Amino acid sequence: MLRVLRVIALIPRNAVVAVLHVYRAVISPLYGDVCRYYPSCSAYGLRSVQEHGVLKGAWLTTRRLARCHPWAEGGIDDVPLPAHSPYRRTRFGFITLERKA
User: InterPro entries, from UniProt (predicted)?
Assistant: First the structure.
């Protein structure tokens, strides 16, 4: 039962991941390579939601977007990784529970 609830709790995270994939495929190429940071802001947002979930991922992405302005120095700015995660990413970027050993 607990496993089923954990899987259901992943639905919002994977919905946001799907929206970010569509944004990166359709809208992001229209802007070109304009981000001062690596990875780009949309890639940072995708990775932060994948690693931390919708709420904390949105917070980290908002902080990143606030730092991304014409006077920013830029550079490499990776998403802080959690110490341990019970999830894994599929090859399409969606989040699933780790398989039982």
Answer: Membr_insert_effic_factor_YidD
